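Q: Predict the assembly, please.
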Amino acid sequence: MTPAWILDIFAAVMLVVAAVSAARLVAARPWQRGAVVTDTDVSHLLMGIAMAGMLASGLTTLPNDAWAAVFAVLTAWFGYRVVRDYQASGTRALAVGHCAPHLVHSAAMVYMFLAITAPAAGGGAGMGGMGGMSGMSTLHVPTLAFVFALVLIGYTVWDLDQLSSLRYGLAMAGAGGGLAVDSPAGPGGTGHEGATGGGRPGLRPVLDSPGTIVGCRIAMGVTMALMLVLMI
Amino acid sequence: MTDVAVAGGRTAWRGRLGAAPVTARPPLDARRALQLALAAIWLLDGVLQYQAFMFTSGFSQMLAGTADGNPAVIAKPITWDANLIGHHTVALNVIFATIQLLLGLGIAFRPTARIALAASVLWALGVWWFGEGLGGVLSGAASPLNGAPGAVILYALLAVLLWPADREVPAPFTAARAVGAHVARALWAVLWLSLAYFALTPDNRAPAGVSGMIAGMEGGEPVWLQDLQKGAASLIGNDGLAASVALAVALVLIAAGVYLPARTARTARTARATLVLAIVVAALIWVFAQALGGILTAGGTDVNSGPLLALLALAYWPLQTAAAAPVPVPAASGQPVASEEEA
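A: Predicted assembly structure:
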């Protein structure tokens, strides 16, 4: 079986992603007027926790059905967003839009929580300690798991290519400091200080940098593909 | 990206980059697209290497099995390596899996693409010997249906052909950019002619050779794939000789296709048709004979040779322009990617 300590490492990475997303949400100060909170941060936060719970043997989170419902809502939301992107950008929205990868992530989470067979050990309230990662649980319709894994890997390599290419470089130049990907101010970057209130200037640029944001998505994509393959 | 705005006591969702038409796009030419496909396959291999089976003694036994039939000078290092892995399965397999993950991520990340491609060549050569027994080329077990000349050597070949440099300008096809058209065509011909040869070896052209090989891949596969394989095995039955000859003829045609001159529209169309034939043959082999690399059995270590052969065929697809600038696949900006890769 896949050693538990390896799965724990991936779980730790997911918790880091969740923590970064939580920090971005807090830094946006949603309790203030005019604050802007990204839906992808909410998505990453929830996915990070859910996936860590699936991977780590000692971590119990929500029941499977609850997670399935949560990610079904996210899937519907990002599906709506992809349709809007499609109306604005055409089929390019699937490649260069930000919502299509999150739609796939959310749908894959729904699939994992609905298609998992009964975990052999440590199921508890959630999927914590599930044997799926270590060879005891599997997914119904494994072909679909493979397809999801392929798409996730495709988006991962695409994200890496885009991260290291002109796309974000141009956006950063427009933002005047690397805050363009989904900073509250958008490409202009002028609303950044207003959104954060000028607090912790050293931390916010790091949280808002393309490397952090896209890096979280890449980590999530690789880990999710790994989980799907392990449960085939 | 979508944001939720909390303003004036009410919450509203609004779009950011995701909803707006995207205008700033990086250049993506055919070579970069193929590099990304190669990166994706490496990444998938890395993920597959973390499967539970790879942490069992079955993995080292599988490696040891590739020594069978090989000359002693090839077989002994394989056996030694398999024993080593058998004693340190977890640690070494984690290293193997992580290396492959890093190769995939490294190729996809432009600043590290060169070093990752170079590393992938070295790694692939090592795996070809120690993990695949040179693909059975020297043991007589090689067949285009089971992945000859070893799937992993195709990774190395692709890395060389997709190397981010321009030796020949203008290049007739992507694979010629780094090594030149003559060398690229020669490599293509050697590969596909060798596959044709392997298709006609005594074991592979035996009456039940092809159908037996297909039927042997059914174990553990999903029902739909088993049904496809049963149908194919039943269709071929004991006509292994005819199937092998037909396959060999197709492989020879594919090998010759890149030598067709592109001076007239007709020959250019014929050349493209042979590449389409290569992709179709690769797809058929991958689905029916290789069972998608055994990935759906939770025991596959890689995707096997089918997708690599198809990727290779795409690397030989004629470029539409005579300029050095690459041809858009699927939608390029027209800027040569090499300039950015060099950056």
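Chain B has 15 helices and two strands. The mean pLDDT of chain B is 85.
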